[in-house]
Here is the input.
Amino acid sequence: MKTSIATVSISGDLPEKLAAIAKAGFDGVEIFENDFLAFDGSPADVGRMVRDHGLEITLFQPFRDFEGMPEPHRTRTFDRAERKFDIMQQLGTELVLVCSNVSPVSLGGIDRAAADFYELGERAAKRGLRVGYEALAWGRHIFDHRDAWEIVRRADHANIGLILDSFHTLARKIDVNSIRSIPKEKIFIVQLADAPLIDMDLLYWSRHFRNMPGEGDLPVTAFTSAIAGTGYDGYFSLEIFNDQFRGGSAKAIAADGYRSLITLGDRVRRDPMAAGLTVAAMPDRAQVKRVSFVEFSVDDTDAADLIDLLRTLGFRKTAQHRSKQVSVFSQGEIRLLINTERAGFTDASYAVHGPSAYAMALVVEDAKEAMARAVKLTAEQFSQPVGSGELEIPAVRGVGGGLIYLLDEKTELGRIWDTDFVAGAVDEENQPAHLLTIDHIAQTVAYEQMLTWLLFYTAIFETQKTPMVDIIDPAGVVRSQVIENTAGTLRVTLNGAENRRTVAGHFIAETFGAGIQHLAFSTDDIFATVKALKRNGFKPLHISPNYYDDIEARYGLDAKLSEQLKAENILYDRDEHGEFFQLYSGTYGDGFFLEIVERRGYRGYGAANAIFRIAALRKQIRPEGMPVI
Here is the structure.
C-alpha cells in the first residue's frame, strides 16, 4: 500500500509540512497549489525539497472549472492548463487533478466534456503528463463518480483517467460497489477522507469537517475495499480539510494520518472482496480481557492522603514491590499501585504533573502481538531498567505521555504478582465495600487531541467508538466520546476540554497536561456499598437536593427510593436497557476523583447527570483557585 497525503491536510509552511510528512513515514505528497504559491522558491526548488525528504510528488492540484466551458472561456481554460503543465514539469510530477466544473457559465453534456478531456489528453501526452478527473459532490453538472467515469471512458485517452475521493462518493451515499467495474489502469489516484455525520451543505461540510479515516462516521473501509477489488495498486492519499488540523501540530496530524492509512489498509486486507490490495500483515487488534491495574505517581505526603481516601473506599494493602517503593491496594479484581519512587519515569512524571494516575495495565490475549501491532501503528514504545529477576513489561506511551502496560496470561507476564511483588498480611480495620472491577477510566485531553487518541485506541485494541456527546459545564462545553469493547472489559471515556474554566480544563491546566481524571469502580449493590463506605468514614460528593425532586418526577420513582438516593448522594439514570446508579468522591489533588457505579442492564455512562456532578465539583474546587464564572 503506497501512502500519500495532501499538503493542505496539515498546518505550517511548505518546508514544515514536508518535514512532518516525511517523518511520519509517507511515501508521497500531493502539492496543493496554494501551498506552492505561498512559497518563495521556484517549482524546481519545491521538487528538489520533496525528493530530498525521500518523497514523491504524487499529484499537483487542483485545476478548476475546465470542462464544458463556452467560448471564449474554453480557450482560456486550455491556456491555463498549459501553464499548469509548465509548473508540473518543473516540479517533477506527472499527474494533475481536474475537479468537476462548478462555474455557473459551464455547459452540461457528457460528450462535450469527453471531447474537452480528449483534447486535454492530447496536450498532456506531448509533455508526458497525465490528467485525473474528479467528481466534486457539489459539481454543477458532474457530482457523481459514475458520471465522471463515463466522461473518462468516452474520452478514451491513455493520459486521461479517474480520481476517486471517498468524501465525494460517501457524502452523497453513492453505492461504492459501482467502483468495482472500473478498470484499475483508469484509476490514477485515490483520495481518502472521513467525516462525522452532519446534516449541512456539502461544500461547507467538506471544507471544514473532514478527518482521518477511522476518526469519522463514513464507511471509508467499504469504499477502500471496493477500490482494492479492482486490483488498483497505486497511491492512497489523504486529502483532509479541517479547521482544527490547520491549527494543530503538523507532526502530530501527519503521524495520525499515517496511522489511519496503515490501520485502514489492515482492515481492508482482511476483506475477501479486496484481494488486490498489497498490505504488510500485522497482528489482529488486541482483545482486552480486563484492566489489570492503575498506577499512581505520588510523593510520601500525597501517598498518605491517597491511601486514606482508598481505605475509606474499602481498599487494603495486599502487596509490596520487591525492589521499588510501590504498594498494591486491592479490592475485588481492582488493583491500584501507589508509587513513591524518586527515580526513573515515575519521578519524571511526578515532577511534571504532580500526583497523578499516570499508568494503566491491560491484560490482552498476547502481549507480544499487541506490542507488535502498536509499534507498527507508530505507537511510542517505552522501556526502562528492571531489577534482577523482575519482569520487563512491554509498554507504550498513552494519553498525556502516560503509560499503557501490556500483560497476558499465557507467558511469564501472567505471574507478575508473584514475580515482582511480595504478598502482605491484610490487617487494616476498614471494611471491603463490595467493589468488583474498574468499570471505566476517564481521560481528559485538550479537545484538539481527541481524534488522535480515539484513533490510537480503536487502531490498536478491539474497540469501537460511540457518538460524541456534549457535557455542559457552567463555564463551557466539554466534548465526550467513549471507546469500549463489546464485553465491557475496556471502557475509556475521552473528555475534550476547550478552555481552562471548565472542570476538565482546570484539571489539564493544573496538572500540565492530559491524563486520567477519574476512575469508576463497579458494584453489584450500591446500597450495600454505601453502608460499608459509611463505616469506613467515606465522604461522598454532595449533590443538590433539587436534583432528586426532578428525577422523581422525570422517571416516576417511588418516593422512598428517591429519598434514599438523596440521603446517600446517589445519582440515577435510566435507558432502554436498565437502570444506573452513581456515587462520587470529592476531588484529590488537582481535580482527580473516584466514582462508584451499579449497572442494572444500563449501557451508558450517566451523561445526563454530568452537569450536576460538575456543579458539585466546582463548589469544592473553587476555593483552591478555580476561576469564578
